[in-house]
């Protein structure tokens, strides 16, 4: 599609684009993280889009379960090969955003890239990396991360798979003692992988040392048959991601060499002596790494959904605002703006928080290299909180975008259903959100109770600022609104801590008191994380060196985000006195003004996400707005339309219709 050729474009979209009052390319660069990144992303996307190997012979929704898997594996393998062939070299993890959309519904090699390789990097010592890293990067071996079991996903300490050390032959014996110990869920485990990192309870010298990572060969490297002592399979259809082969795995006293325990952080020596790690949660490092990645991935899913919903809302006409006048674009309804535009604002919130988290992660990783684990708890808390809020915000946002497209949003060809199922899974995987938020709450209560002790953790330093509890501001600058978020979070933490303490003073054990306060604790964690997101949003936009047009748009989006979230949880702001009922009413009015200000820019802002039609894959969201023809053309692809009268008519309907004769 030639974006300069207006003649091919829907007239509403042409008019929308003419209203643009900022530099789209400049905003695109901000979304990508710089000009060079935009160029790199486009280069990769061009490479993919122009390659016929990535086309599906028929839409995936009409494929059998086996064909979906096989088709996606074909494309995944081609993609890996293609990226490996690039002379310029590539960092697949750096470029992962550029690949969004090319593989449609769960990619069998995803966990190889996102967890198996990172697990080797983060958990294997240098000799082990020598042995497995190069091979896995060259895709000579394909792996997954097998932690979750039928009986336990959340509670990692409760895993049942055992790795028992036998010093006589220097081997570990891997065993699945019960049905509930069966590994269940790992992506690519069913049919694709021949290796995996298994999390198993480590037993040596008669003692259990908790879950540790082991690298295990699962299938013969020549025949791809599963090895003796190993049972493997696929777990069956899921809500979404059905071209992946999420699998199950059982061990029957399967032996692996001692040196297959990943020993960067803890070791088992030849005689069975256990050497403990610097920090006993270092073996959870792979999960933490992926949680950081999920924040960026969620922002991308939301970009897809909001691009589709905004363009469609500009093209779609329905009903009337002024009686008797032509049907308006649905984007002119304030309620429609309220669905779509806050989701656009949310995209930037997620992008800026993802970047901030990524920086913290890099500095913690650098410190870990020097043996300093001081900031690990803060990173655990931040990555847990942001993974939870980004996945729930994005899932809700995608669903709102789907609803904003009315009936057509329910069609597979809109690509909204698949975007939703591909996003909501992130609420569950890599740590179920409630559970992760309770980890954040644990950290908050602990930090609150240790006020005065220097920990170096900046994200919770505000908890010491008790004076702010008494001061409600009458100013409404963005900074002042961020202060209101701070006050609300601080006040919730103080309330939860007091409630916990009261229950303990009344004689309850701490863990019962904890469970009894956990709904409030969840709120604390959400408020704390929301404050973090709002603060990063405000700071990033404030310090941005950008043209006036771009800065104005981002300031308005940031302000909309702040006010939108205040109105969603206004009770918390009222309860702590950060805002008065009158303040809330004024802000609600301003939110509507902001919707009106941003409405003419909405199409141009989503254009700045710069998602090619071929990747967006949506009849409703295409750049030219030729929605109705595309919907019709897609419908014609239904196999039921191959014949006028289907076979099923003769088999079932005809006998029924004639039975009464
Ligand atoms: C980019 C997209 C890629 C998509 C691909 C994704 C495919 C999906 C893959 C998966 O889903 S893999 C499986 C993921 N599974 C989980 O995430 C399990 C979630 N559960 C846990 O992580 C843990 O069980 C827990 C909830 C963190 C609890 O762990 P544990 O019971 O061992 O700890 P506690 O007793 O609750 O706490 C003790 C202490 O440890 C601290 N802590 C816990 N985790 C960490 C950590 N990672 N780093 C640092 N510290 C940690 C915790 O805060 C406690 O501290 P104190 O309060 O005692 O100081
Ligand atoms: C699409 C997908 C891909 C996956 N890929 C992988 C993979 O590659 N590798 C892998 O190892 N695993 C994978 N998983 C598994 C995933 O990590 C787990 O499903 C996830 O960690 C949640 O654990 P669970 O299923 O045991 O949920 P449960 O813990 O059984 O959750 C059920 C309910 O119990 C609640 N609950 C549980 N514990 C607590 C608590 N302490 N406090 C309060 N409430 C609690 C939860 O909030 C939830 O409401 C995948 C899962 C999905 C859906």
From TrEMBL:
GO molecular-function terms, A-Z: acyl-CoA oxidase activity; ATP binding; FAD binding; fatty acid binding
Stretches assigned to the Acyl-CoA oxidase C-terminal domain: 479-658
Sequence positions that bind FAD: 148, 187
Localization annotation: Peroxisome
Highest taxon of the lineage: Eukaryota
InterPro entries, sorted: ACOX_C_alpha1, Acyl-CoA_ox_N, Acyl-CoA_Oxase/DH_mid-dom_sf, Acyl-CoA_oxidase, Acyl-CoA_oxidase_C, AcylCo_DH-like_C, AcylCoA_DH/ox_N_sf, AcylCoA_DH/oxidase_NM_dom_sf
Similarity annotation: Belongs to the acyl-CoA oxidase family.
Name under which the protein is recorded: Acyl-coenzyme A oxidase
